[in-house]
Write a structure and sequence with these properties.
The chain is built from one helix and ten strands. By secondary structure, it is mostly beta strands.
C-alpha cells in the first residue's frame, strides 16, 4: 500500500483538470466535476448555520425560504445543480423546490409540505455541484 501526501494537486495537461480512472478500470471521470462546490446544514427556525463549506451567510427570504450566499461564486451563467433536503417532522410530507433564484453569488431554496404550504424546516440542507467562477 502507498500513501500520497500533498497540499496541492495540479493536472499536467491542464492545471485545473485531473482525470481519475473509474472503479471498473475502463472509464474516467474529471475530479473537479465530481466534487461538491458548496454545502450547508442550516435551521430555518432561527436562521443559523450548523455547518457549511463555501457558504458565507444565509438570508431568511420568507417562510420556508432560505437564501444561501456563496463565499466563492459559481460560474456566471447560473447553470449548476443545487439539491436540498430536510427532515419531515409531521405527517404532511415534504416537497422542496428551487425558487428560480439560481444566481452566480447565491441560490434561494424553499421548503413546502405536499400541499404546497411553505414552512420553516429544521434542519434544512443544501449541496451544490457545478463550476466555480
Amino acid at each position: 500500500m502507498s500513501t500520497l501526501k500533498a497540499n496541492t494537486l495540479t493536472g499536467t495537461t491542464s492545471a485545473g483538470s485531473i482525470v481519475v480512472t473509474g472503479e471498473g478500470g475502463s472509464t474516467t471521470t474529471n475530479l473537479q466535476q465530481g466534487l461538491a462546490k458548496a454545502f450547508c446544514l442550516a435551521s430555518m427556525a432561527d436562521n443559523s448555520i450548523y455547518d457549511s463549506f463555501n457558504i458565507s451567510s444565509i438570508d431568511d427570504d420568507a417562510t420556508g425560504q432560505l437564501g444561501f450566499n456563496y463565499t466563492n461564486n459559481m460560474r456566471a451563467n447560473g447553470v449548476y445543480a443545487p439539491q436540498v433536503t430536510g427532515v419531515v417532522s409531521d405527517s404532511t410530507g415534504f416537497n422542496s423546490t428551487g425558487t428560480g433564484d439560481i444566481l452566480s453569488d447565491q441560490v434561494t431554496m424553499q421548503a413546502a409540505d405536499t400541499n404546497g404550504t411553505a414552512y420553516d424546516m429544521n434542519p434544512f440542507s443544501l449541496t451544490v455541484h457545478g463550476d466555480l467562477a
